[in-house]
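User: Could you check the structure of this?
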Amino acid sequence: MPTFNIKNVKNASELAPGTRILIDEHVNSPIVLTGLRGTYEDPIVIERSPKVVISLPSHDPAREANLIAWKRQEGGFFPSVGQVADQAALVLSDCQFVQINGLKFKNCWPTAIYLDRSQNIAVTKCKFKGGTVAIGANGLETRDILIEECRWRQTKPGEMWDTIAWEAIHGSYENAQRGVDVENDQRQYDGDFFRAWDIGGNITIRGNHIADAFNGIHFFNSIDALPPGVDGDAIRFNNGRRSANNVLIESNRFVRVRDNCIEPEDHAWNWVVRSNVFEDCYAIYSFELDRGGWFYIYDNHHWILNRPGKDTGSNRTGGSGFKSGGDHDNEGDIYVFNNSWLFGLGERMFRKGHMGRVKHYNNAAKIRGEESNYFGKNWSVADGPNDCPEDILKAEKKRFTRRWEELEIEMNGDWIYDKNSPEQYREAGYALGPDTKRTSPSFSKPTGPKNRKILKPGNSMKKAGACWKMRLPGYDEAQRAIETLETNPYEWYVPKDGPVGAGLSEQELKLFEERLTFVPDAPLRLKGKKRKKKAF
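Assistant: Sure, the predicted structure tokens are below.
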């Protein structure tokens, strides 16, 4: 493998496939590489010498970010800072088949790595400390990305979780009834481990450790919005689905994430979220979708045992499993099955609002605390006999929807162990299936070695699951030819007496992997050691 020192790279487009680019001294100014062209078998690899650190320092990152947010606020926009994320320490533009391996980034403000109009990129074994965004990706021409075995810690352990108010990072007049405080806010943290703007898809995020950060994985997709009156089913090219599709998020560990861990916004399709661990995270799944579908969320371990922001005066201190927003006019189902939850302070599984076409099966949740608000703060408040649709939508601002038939929501086979019984939820209008039980999962706390703890299932959970039906993304297309088919090959019945909760065996995981064949392939042949199967 020929090696070029980064200082000697004058024209990146002339480097041959298989070239190694070496960063052999500390860097504190941007590196921009344009036109790199490796191949699948011989990618161009970017590495560093031992002890080399890449930085993009700021004299006062908090004040600079606060001023950016304030300017946006004064112009009538949301006071965010992500629009400057293209100012990065390492930029790849118009590149193909490149592996960024083993680099160390410290205090890169605002961004460490930025990918633009690039394909078949792998970011492996990199370490990030500080910064607003660890990895950013932009544009429909950006696709086929692997992020594997990286680590990001945005602040000192516990600093953001315990001592910085949520409002100081992300507050606005709309969500917190306060504007930007230029002198005291901490807007430099309003970012993500991975942030994507309208990218093409085929994204794998695997085996990473994300701790003491504001957000985890965040996709924006505005380009797939449909004009008024247009039906996506009538659009020939993939029903108008071009971005934020075919995403695999597996075997990652999220620790003390102060806002959202997994956040698809606007439009997203074909996501698999499996075998991850979420430890003391505020809002684990944030689905603010106008339309989307074909999500498969399974074998994940979640717990919230320490309340965030307890010493900050913040109003954002109660965690949740699912946060929803948008129209949720979903074209495919959102499957949530065989996950485990432990809430220590009466947190809400479904905070409020509605989610279209949710299918929720064989999950295990144990909720402690004096209050139990599984379906939101006002779950037990009855609708009035004369309530109009506007009244119902207003009520859903403080509880999860009861419009399950209209929205094609199903929940069955779950173990929900809290103060209330399934009968009480049914009486309140939540149409839980007949196999939903108030049975205590066998776990009482996370167990295992440090940084590898899980909610270990007991024997009583291993053969207690209900039967349910899964449909795969090809279902609608195959259904158009159903008259010539005996059965639809994209529909599968998961048999009863399977497991409840997370902790699936390798054999059980393989059954689902064999059916979820749309997940991305490796974007290139990686250099270095083979990865471990699971991160815990």
